Amino acid sequence: MGWVAKQLLGNWKRTRITGGAFLCCVCLFLATPKIPRSPKHHLFADMRNLLGGLFSISLRGEFWGWALYYAGMAGVAFGSAYYHLKPDDSRVMWDTLPMMLAYSSLFSSLLIERLGQRIGMSSLFALLLAAFLCMAYERSYDDIRLCMIFQLIPSIAIPSVAFLFRPKYSHSRYWLWSSGIYLLAKFEAAADRKIYRANSYLISGHSLGHLCLAVNPILLSIMLFYRDIKAQRIGDLKEEP
């Protein structure tokens, strides 16, 4: 009976956290005015042309989460290059959507590790669907609020889950470093022109943001390569095929 009560209490806590996070997002969306994508979004500070079995993964759900993350980051490389050849509203989704899909998969991989495969896989499908719906909303109504909120989720949700729930693997601090780099990249992109002027027009904030995002897959690959299983949870054993 004690074990059942503990499980019910844990599920209730997770439900409250999830519900609270959802309500915060809804309130933020309702409290802010419509934000159309500005034409200045495509006018970057630096417009010059530039020429020139290894990982520790123990669950099938983790494999799919990480595979989709790396596929999403590869999509970012090609989509961003396509967008920056001619920045405009019709191409920007190829720069934004792969990033949203990649970090949806990354967050789901963390949930699989910390909370179990069933919760993580359910979140993966829900977040992938939400990413497409956010992009469809932006394209239909010229309002980027949902996409902005969605892109802020990883920098808040990943460190929160990493702090609140016990890690299954070693080297869990890499999750926090990854979130910090992602947040730094968003700040650099927002301060594009200010950073460009501050360093005497050597490199723009947007370019620095891309460099930071490029570091993240390397950092997370190092984590996967060196980490070891610390503990096997009963729930994980039940979920394994």
TrEMBL record:
The chain crosses the membrane at residues 63-85, 118-137, 144-165, 208-226. Keywords: Membrane, Transmembrane, Transmembrane helix. The keyword rRNA-binding does not apply. It comes from the Eukaryota. This is Alkaline phytoceramidase (APHC). It comes from Quillaja saponaria.
